[in-house]
Structure of Ras association domain-containing protein 3:
Amino acid sequence: MSSGYSSLEEDSEDFFFTARTSFFRRAPQGKLRTGQQDVEKEKETHNYLSKEEIKEKVHKYNLAVTDKLKMTLNSNGIYTGFIKVQMELCKPSHTAGKPTASSNGCMNTLHISSTNTVGEVIEALLKKFLVTESPTKFALYKRCHREDQVYACKLSDREHPLYLRLVAGPRTDTLSFVLREHEIGEWEAFSLPELQNFLRILDKEEDEQLQNLKERYAAYRHKLEEALSQAWKPG
């Protein structure tokens, strides 16, 4: 499967797309999501920033965009835009009854809304690539680049990727998203540079702890020596 732009209204019977709410799971017939539910979800999303702050950030974001993938702020305060997700599947995934690894390493561009959660994005990506395995076996990570360091952080299912994209700006060398399987070994989900960075952090923390320990024992030794000197003075 080739990488590139995809709207989540395509190739899926379980999700639909509108300009107001982007994609949501279809409810059973007769139980479609109500407008009040959308409003409540919008309020939850925008607890981060005021409407004026969002308006300003969307404006600045669009000025910095170089690939025409701009954000759109709607009158109800919900904004829509694009995120790019790197598919890093370490082993073949099962699609429609047969294993495939064609999505490994490819980049997929999703058009989503500020109300969409990490959990919804994971489900949509798996459906896009016809992966039949449970979404609970996968996790969305944000990868941050600061100077020469690379940081990877697993996102909770209730976080909002488009909000993170808005705050970080459009540059993927500052913030990028990665979809990975996380049912494998604890450290196998990380790349070699990330593991090397973890070792540097551990070394630094170890040095700090050792220094603190040495200072504590030095202070304790000093107090003991003072006590001994006082005890041996003639009365």
